[in-house]
Amino acid sequence: MNTGFITFYYHLLIAFLLAAVAFYGLKWLIMRWRAEQQAGIRPLVANTFRRPVLTIPWLFFILYSAHFWPGLESSEFNESLILIQKILLVVYPAWFIWEVSLNMEGLLNTADGRWAGRLSYSVIARSIQLLIVITTLLSLAQVFGYRLSTLLAFGGIGGIILGLAAKDWLANFFGGLMLMLDRPFTEGDWIRSPDRAIEGHVEKVGWRLTKIRTFDRRPIYVPNSIFTGIVVENATRMRNRRMVENFYLRYEDFEKIPNILRRIDELLQLVSEVDNKEPHYAVFIRYDDSALLCQVRAHITRTDRVGFLKVQESILLLIAKAVTEAGASFAYPTRRILSNGPIT
């Protein structure tokens, strides 16, 4: 065997051992640095950069082996190797930034909690990803020898053709961008539209489609362009939910109505889930055919459906309690039959 090959194999073995030592050393440092803080910025940073950092030793080992491999000194091979290095110099930083975009929400929230609710993390992440893709493709085109001015000129003509051919797709794309910028709703919100048969919880806002899970657990996929032309109600962002309940009292209990309504109003003020910042009342509305119509209105701070119904139930029981304490009764439909003679 050639002495050059033997020397190279020794160098290759040493390079492999150094790469392995560097790999496991970096891995140990990352794990130790992450373990020093169970929650916060460190675990997120470690998870974000773990794969790109641990790839570095093996990339150096592969490039070293390719550079010094005996018998591969031809100019064509060296040109190919230089081209691969240039590609790695473009792709590798893009990989770092891509990993950051995937963990954007956690990184911003951990770094400064004031960002919560102010920024759409999906907009930031996807904008970064789109910028990475465009920049990487243009950089790779230059690496392969294409002029940037030619690419931009071709891209302008191609963009017009593509825009005409894919106008629906572009409408949904920009509709999704507007949803992410305006943020009429976010993932997890309960929304409904009075213009369309759309109601449920938002599971995912994509660039083209929004996935909504209805209350019977069926997923519906709505093109984003639809949201630019319809009214959307976001029930999740309600500050409270209004309860309006009518009840009827007998005409025989007319004199007891003021005490009953006053007692109901007192009991409402004792319910902690009633929003006292909003007007609430218990009033006599009108004389009905066979009963006296009264109404109770209150704003309940529990906006979830189950919680709201529970509080509403307790208020209805308080109404019944006030009526019973006053010695009155609820009215029910009655009919009086008048006859001049005996009924047979």
Describe the structure.
- The protein contains nine helices and eight strands.
- It is 54% helix and 14% strand.
- Helix 1 runs antiparallel to helix 2 and helix 3 packs antiparallel against helix 5.
- It has three domains: 162 residues; 67 residues, SH3 type barrels (Roll), CATH 2.30.30.60; 88 residues, Alpha-Beta Plaits (2-Layer Sandwich).
- The mean pLDDT is 80.
- The chain starts with a helix and ends in a 19-residue tail after the last helix.
- It is of the alpha+beta class and 344 residues long.
- The strands form two sheets. A five-stranded antiparallel β-sheet has the order 4-3-2-1-5, with helices on one face. The chain has a three-stranded antiparallel β-sheet with strand order 6-8-7, covered by helices on one side.
Helix content: 40-55%
> How large a portion of the residues is in β-strands, by DSSP E?
5-15%
The N- and C-terminal alpha carbons lie at a distance of: 129 Å
Average pLDDT figure = 80
The tally of domains stands at: 3
Work out the helix count.
9
Low-confidence runs: none
Secondary structure tally: strands: 8
Main beta-sheet strand count, sense and barrel state: 5 strands, antiparallel
Rounded to an integer, what's the Rg over CA atoms?
A: 35 Å
Elements, N to C (H/E): HHHHHHHEEEEEEHEEH
Shape: elongated
Question: How would you write the strand order of the largest sheet?
Answer: 4-3-2-1-5
Structural class: alpha+beta
